[in-house]
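Input/output pair, single chain:
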Amino acid sequence: MNDFIQMRQIAVILARRWWLIVLSVALSTATGFVISRNLPPIYEATSTLLVGQSIQAANLDSGDLQIGEQLAVTYAEVGLRQPVLKGVVETLELDRSWQQLRKQVRITPINGTQLLEITVEATSPAEARIIADEIARQMILLSPAQTPSEAEAESRLFLEERLASLRLRIDNGQLRIEELEGEMANLRTAAALAAYQTEINSLEQMITGWEGNYAQLLTLLESSSTANYLAVMETAEANPEPVRPRVGLNTLLAGSLGMVLALGAIILREYTDDTLKTTDDLQQELGLTPLGAVSQIRVKGYQGKLLSSLSPFSATSEAFNVIRSNIRFASENTLPGVILITSPGISEGKSLTAANLGLAMARSGLNTVIVDADLRQPAQHLIFEISNVMGVAELLRSTELKLEGYLSRTGVDSLKLINSGETPPNPSELLGSEQMELLLARLVDEFEVVIMDCPPVLTGADAAVLSNRVDAVIMVVQAGRTRRHEARRSLAILQQAGATVLGAVLNRASRGSLNYHYMFTGGAIGQDGDMPAPYIKRLRKWNLGKLGMRGSAKGNFNGRHGTEPVSDTGGQGNSADE
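Output:
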């Protein structure tokens, strides 16, 4: 099962980066094709040499054969050395050195034989053939058997003459014996027969001696041939078709190389990337319960990203409905009174997550207040487009906790907002004061849900100071941005402060990793996360109540009132950017 999951993860990674694979293969293939087509054509010619004279000998000697094979290996090395190649360069007047010529030559002994193959590559068939033949000639010139001495030549001539004389005598002797045997048939006296028989016996003895001498001289003549002998077996023949470049093969190899490099780069990048990407990472790396995942919505400004600007049927609404339900389940089916929203670092989407979660709570009929406790870089007044003159900083510095004048309207009846106010010089001290405890107690008395937008954990002590004064902490993690070690460090700081970390929300999750509610599958979601009108009509026709739809949306959502989908699983929506 683990192996299957690992392979599935790799498949998802490759599917997400398919464009890089296609681009790399296309560029590599095109590059390989262009380079191969522009390379000069290379032609090849091959000549064959025979080492020794075994094919000319009547009686083969295994020793000569073995010596010939060994000499073939030696001559293969000799042919690539300076004496031979330099002689070729000088004879043919080539415009290159013998070292450069050596790169064009390949001399190979054929296993089990006395044959040598001389292969030459050149830019034309004629040049390859001429060089191969000249290399063979230069090697033959170095062969000691090609320049026999005068004494050896005279000895060989004498042996050949003696063999011819003995062969003539043997032939004449045989003829004389046949004549004598024919004449004996006409003889009548015993004395005449005895004389003829004596002559025949004498001739036979002489022929036997001549034959013995002939055999000895023939053996001596054959033994005078040497195994250290080179001869051209085949003259060079050039292939009219170029052997290189092989455009098709080079193009295929270049494309394959491009694919391998792309796959390697993708896998290397993924395995060296220590950012959190999926809800599985939240559970496996941090041990946190994934409360939901929100994908990115490409809209400028905060207003287009708020639930109040989207249909209750949008994917964003569904995502925060799921987060709201999972908060209830994680809190043993009750909503915590005070929920702190924070993140490991800046710009990971905590402020917009807090705003949309407050809207989701208010949509479900809960009396909710959002408290902007980020006294360093507040964002709630920008999200809801409200003045930030009076807020949390002023409340905490006042002697009386009167909420009148500090609660701002958000456009939703069940949702109020307390801004951060002017930035104080001592945010941590204010947030850790007794006045803060009194403010939280007052808010819990007047509201069912209190959502606090808190500074990131790693930017200061504010989050740690507040975390043990609230009922639950939710960490917002941005997919592909938040690093594992930063998230672990943030979690350790919160746990050390005694916080109850309820879970985490994955922001800007990739759409490939989202599991939408069943009603949002099959192409039912529009480009901006809204359900098309025909699908809404079909839902109304089928009776929304049968699909688990309940409740009326509180307030005016862009002038639209409607029912709200409630789902406990799946459902992720658009980005909660900070």
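The CA atoms of residues 57 and 222 lie 7 Å apart. The first strand starts at residue 43 and ends at 51.
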